[in-house]
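Q: Protein A?
A:
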Amino acid sequence: MRKCGLLGRNIGYSKSPKIHNDYYKIHNIDLEYELFDMEDNKVDEFFNNLEHSNIIGFNVTIPYKEKVLRYLNHLVYPSNIIGAVNTVVIRGNTYLGYNTDYFGFIKSLQVKGIDVKGKTILILGNGGSSKAIFYALKDLGASSIDMAGRNIKKMEREFLLVDNILNISSDFNFYKYDMVINCTPLGNINNPQLPFTIKRIKKDLIIYDLNYKPSKTKLMELGESLGAICVNGEDMLKFQAYEAIDIWCENLK
């Protein structure tokens, strides 16, 4: 049986294998999805062995969405604009990079009835996921996008179109924002503590946490205590997965 899976680190909590394998069983697709959970120093070996494996493609998650770019032969839109990949297709010794986070995020907003056009938004984090979210928000017509992270120089270099760059600090005043999107692992099952508190929020603030385990993250708990509307990343996870499946199945023909 041909295989696909998820490349990442400390990802034993992931729901992706169940989402994929249930879908393959229901739709009679001859694929099996597994976790490729490894430390950074094993990624080279993983790619070196792909040509002789039965792996036809894989998803990519924290912390490798940017690291994998060096191994790829071609980036398919919008991954070439975003500069991060979460889905890889293998064709012999050729590796193609895609970004289905972009589409999964947009679809997740649609099913929740969230309209970001004309909104003021803060993105927490500056990794691969935040890049996909940033470009999706731009394309959806957000009026202003700020970003907060720990590596200010990296953000200044890579996010030239962002309105303001902030440092993730001990206090956040969210009052100016209509929506806050957490693209960091902060508050998830592997990182249960938040390094900041929230001082003030606007009425009807939406907090969207890309993390989904626990289903109510620390940021969501904090937001709900202040009256925010909180959403986790489970819908985005499913929709980006279905997009990846379509890509792999097209390449299997």
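Q: Protein B?
A:
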Amino acid sequence: MSHVSSPARRSNHWLWPLLLLLGSITLTIAWLMAALATGTQAGWMAVLAALEAAWMLRLGGFRPGRARYLIAIAAVVVITVVANWFIASAYIGGPMGLTPWESALRMGPRLAWTLLSLANGLGEAIWLAIGMIVAWRVGR
């Protein structure tokens, strides 16, 4: 019976990048919405990003091991950066009548860095660290 399930897993190995991309986009939007609804940076969403990344890799048939948890950790970092960029752009562009997507394209890296360094503190750094630990643990 294990012989039957092995080829099925191998035939789906191309699916994990699509699932990871889809999950990352939806989680980034959810993070933006949570931050705008609560008025905070919603750093706790890093833990959900870790769980989502590990789950999408597992669901996509990516084999357990070092590569899987490193990709999960990288996904958490990328989701965090993109979500924070959109949060900052939403707060800057909103009063000017711009959507977060329009404002994100116009905001430069220096302004984004300044805004993110002012908005993110120790709490968000701790949540990001917890998220990376969760990605490592669940992604193994």
